[in-house]
Amino acid sequence: MSTENTHPSPARPEWPLYEVFVRGKRGLNHVHVGSLHAPDDRMALHNARNLYTRRNEGVSIWVVRAEDITASSPDEKDPFFEPSGDKVYRHPTFYPIPDDVPHI
Amino acid sequence: MSGDNIYTALSEEHGGDTRWAFGTGFTDALAGVDTTLPEGVDGQDLALYCQMLGDDALVQAQRLIHWVTDAPELEEEVALANIALDLLGQARLLLSRAGQADGTGRDEDAFAYHRTADQFRNVHLAEAPRGDFARAIVTLLVLSSVRLAVFTRLADSRDPVLAAIAAKAVHELAYHRDYAVSWALRLGDGTPYSHERMVEAVTDVWPLTGEPFATHPVEARLTAQGAAVDPATVRAEVHDVLTQVLTTATLQAPPAFPEPVLAGRGGEHTPELAPLVAELQKVAREHPEATW
Amino acid sequence: MSTVTAQAPPEGADVQQAEFDAKIAADQRIEPRDWMPDGYRRTLVRQVSQHAHSEIIGMQPEGDWIASAPSLRRKAILLAKVQDEAGHGLYLYAAAETLGVDRADLTDRLIEGRQKYSSIFNYPSLTFADVGVIGWLVDGAAICNQVPLCRSSFGPYARAMVRICKEESFHQRQGYELLMRMMEGTDAQRAMVQDAVDRWWWPSLMMFGPPDADSPNTRQSMAWRIKRDTNDELRQKFVDMTVPQAERLGVTLPDPELAWNDERGHYDFGEPDWAEFKQVISGSGPKNAERIARRRAAHEKGAWVREAATAYARKHAQEATA
Predict the structure, then answer these.
(1) Helices (H), A26-66
(2) From the candidates A46, A51, A54, which should be mutated to test the interface with B, based on the most B CB atoms within 10 A?
(3) Is the separation of the CB atoms in C82 and C66 below 8 Å?
(4) Coil, helix or strand for A60?
(5) Which of B:50-89 have CB within 8 Å of A?
(6) pTM of the entire predicted model
(7) Which of these, A20, C93, A45, C84, lies nearest to B81 by C-alpha position?
(8) What is the ipTM of this complex?
(9) H or E segment and range at residue A36
């Protein structure tokens, strides 16, 4: 029922919107750092490199057209995420271990 | 926000948070590099050679600076500023090396601000008027292709400082060329109008493409000493690159480069250079005793 | 961006409002696809886009000095700083776009003079000392304004501000460092610094906006936690911070009423000329027309380049991109 798109329709002549993800260093996930406009994928990478990695921020960049992202709706928060809220056994602190057991 | 330090709130909330992918640190291209002049390399020649390469970068950066607040899109202002910053960085290292090599101990600013225009050693293509965006892209394409070819070989220079500067610059120049290629394709193969602009830009720039391959006596001597790269040796390679880029951009294959004739390397310049140098040096010359 | 909806629970407007209020009360962030009151959205669009415009127009007063910076080190610093401002404008436009406006419209509003930006950038920068003073005072004031905005209730705005504040931490310091060097230089340099301080002090105080009593939007913005401090609170904080810095530098701030007030534990200071402020912000500043004309010229002159890239993208849309 959410009618508020994150971004307006791309049916305009301007360069489309891209979302940018940067891997800060090896071993880390790519994280969303923001968005930008570019005429195509290749230029989006150029722009992302110039805009979001001016200070050595990244070792890898992903760009994706904003309109190609499928998102869960905020209204679905409950059905989507609540079922995992009670699965406390997924968390390590669920299991009491005496302090004198090493390396665990 | 605490009273005495406005940045406290920042460090408190986000200190050490790697999720933000913030940049950290920088690397010193010359860390641990021996600055002693290698045996058999002429210091005066090396100083002139460093000015040639340094002035190409400084003058080109000075032209690019004017795109910031004036480019077709904000993203391109950021990109062109990055390229200008890279070139400024190269110029500073090279001019500093010039002052070490000639034994005067002059710093980068002594060269940038206290030489007259006819003491600059850059090629004419670097000082040519800025023109429109197509002209800027073709100029950048040619200059970055030449410089990348030269610096790739210069990374093996017997002068360890020059070798280190070149090794760092190669990555920057490869990006500059990549950026110029991307735009050359889009303008050449974009609209009929942009295609025309590119045709005109190539026509305007081409007469200036012979000079960068002319070998100055300083370059010849230093090449023999293993410290420099003779630009004549990269001529064919650069022509191949440009032919490939321009034909992919649906433009005609370019004619051969004009005859390589020395000009800027010997201090002969077009009337375009003097106003550029005057603007560069304006504040510094108004306050000769000042410190900045 | 498309939305996959598993279920559409019937929710009335009151429920949505109540949920929104609860999030604000709990100091949670509002995200773009959450329901939000129209007024909240309008206020944010206005504030974020004006903030973006200010970054972009703010490139010009200093940008004019890049070509003539008196050392290569200063030239690189200044170029990097002005480039940052372009980047910050882009971050903020992106944040504004999550509210459903698009950048092309915002650009039009700017170059047609339909939307405001910080009045400070309508003053001219007359000497190289202005570069230092803009860094010290104008960026100093901007940081006072912006640091609390890192906790703004609208997520994309707050995140953009975190990034911007981190990056701007060098902007004020480079300005102050330049001024320290100049104050150790020649008499002419010291005079340049004092002259620049005289010209920029009052406009810097005006950057915090009109006094709280005349700022009708402040109360609502604070209730929504878009803003976290009032204009007058931030202005006081700025003055308290800046006076000792001025003393250390050896310059005089051009306000005869400036004096430490032991009772309040703050500096007292004079009232800026609010009539001038209103004039400048409504477009009659010394440089207003020129600043906008420059941006408009760049935009119009660049139209064929943007069109070429769009045409190329259309032609090559089928090709796989590496």
Answers:
(1) 41-52
(2) A46
(3) yes
(4) strand
(5) 73, 75, 78-79, 82
(6) 0.90
(7) C84
(8) 0.92
(9) strand A30-37
